[in-house]
């Protein structure tokens, strides 16, 4: 049965077509918001996937280039692998929805969002977030929703609900908030140093709007929602837990996990697992879920220690940060490097500078962004966690962590006019035991300063965790969570910022939402921690950006020329500019506005290139002294080249103070000479003299 549902959302009509397309999916919603159209579908396998101990959820965000009237670039004229924006959007959809599926559900589920039309006033990412929630809620897939998502921007100090693409790109806030009917379940933000109280105000503005969307979805579910299908539970039997506690007592498990050395803890758990395997050797059913059972036993032990006894596995106080260390100039010859260590988490970031011609070109649905000047890449090799596996390039997690650090640092970068470089930072994870993304922000700040990038303010990042009890007011917020507290806890609340405000937030949780007191406490805790990291660790390592870029970094001279003279500098088929490059060994970039960047490592050659360009674009004036070389000899005089493509003539009578019969008696091809400009001759050409040079 075809049916359309509509509601007013932020001054526009949101409409959802159900039963019109994709009828064989478990749930499908054709979403319309303005002229933006996204098809969201939810499908599930009939049986659970065997041999896994996790929920196999896949989320896709497919950017179809026809949606913006483009044919994909490159040789293969069809969409290829997911863009970075598509990966990040899929992650933002996944994070609030994953906790709402049953914890013991092992059927494969795919949420697919296909962007079919894009209206710049209505961002397709928002529509995909809402469409995924709607398609799943009305399907027969078990789901404890619905959830809803709202985006908040800020223009001229005022909040904008579900902003246009232009306001999103150019405003001071990019906030995405997902909620259930009671609590906030996901936060993602990039901000231009927004104060903590202002950020909280924006979060709960979005939360209130989400309630109207949830009511709209609930109405749809009541009318057309399918009955949720039964599934095979993969929960660990309670009698198995009872047997495990007889073999390994709670006190023994607590002793096994209560250590600040990750490797020791893992060895302890390995010994416990082997002991249980031996005890359950005759019970194949229990052996099949033993890994999950040991995980759950650890989880219950750690949560009880923290919540009831206020004891953390490594012995720290609830608000205590792990031991910190920072240093710069770790790697020679690179343009900038720094290492940041927090406990058993260690990141080294390397900065590379290049001319603006090396910015990353972006081919996507956003017409406002066609290139990226700052690129932050994050790598997570298997050795950082003591494992061995081949490298297959960055996965979605690595792309997401790099994008979070990039988002945190963009607000403090200098403008292109102040610092005409393309900038790339690469964060290499040397060791990991929780919150490497925030360590990469700290390391990258120091690396940028060491490279001589004049950032406006240093940025630091830190993460808070959470353990909750049976009631909303029974909880503990943990400052600086390590890996174990992340795995067994309920929240990973990452906040980055300067002394003056927040630049990025990413909040993931494993429960059905956070109350406002938890959100406020987490934001307050992260502010306190990041100020400590900035003042006590990072700034003592490097107090301010270096005055100049490093020895091995390229140097850049910027100059402005008349745009109408660009053709003179470039020359026919690039002949003139290529000649300058060949003579000096520099790299030259010219924009359509006449901005010229000369990049090189030899200061003298860079100055020479700048001088040649100035000669080319400057009209000769009487009395001007110039140096050049003889490029052509005629009976009546010689032609002197002052710069590639820029020549003038010296009449035979102006070559020498004595009378000469032949030009060749004084000049030969290639001679370097100095002349003075005499102005225009009778034919309107510029005339020069050698003999009148004073």
TrEMBL record:
- Lipoprotein as a keyword of this entry, yes or no, is no
Cofactor(s) recorded for this entry are: Mg(2+)
Q: Known EC number(s)? A: 2.7.7.8
Where does it reside? Answer: Cytoplasm
Domain of life, source organism: Bacteria
Cite the S1 motif domain residue spans from the record: 623-691
List, in alphabetical order, the GO biological process terms annotated in this UniProt record: mRNA catabolic process; RNA processing
Looking at the keywords, is RNA-binding present? Answer: yes
Q: Into which EC class is this enzyme placed?
A: transferase
Q: Which GO terms describe its cellular component?
A: cytosol
* Reaction(s) this enzyme catalyzes, per UniProt: RNA(n+1) + phosphate = RNA(n) + a ribonucleoside 5'-diphosphate
- What does the protein in this record do? Involved in mRNA degradation. Catalyzes the phosphorolysis of single-stranded polyribonucleotides processively in the 3'- to 5'-direction.
PANTHER family of this UniProt entry? POLYRIBONUCLEOTIDE NUCLEOTIDYLTRANSFERASE, POLYRIBONUCLEOTIDE NUCLEOTIDYLTRANSFERASE 1, MITOCHONDRIAL
Q: What is this protein called?
A: Polyribonucleotide nucleotidyltransferase
Q: Which organism is it from?
A: Eubacterium ramulus ATCC 29099
Lineage per the UniProt record: Bacteria, Bacillati, Bacillota, Clostridia, Eubacteriales
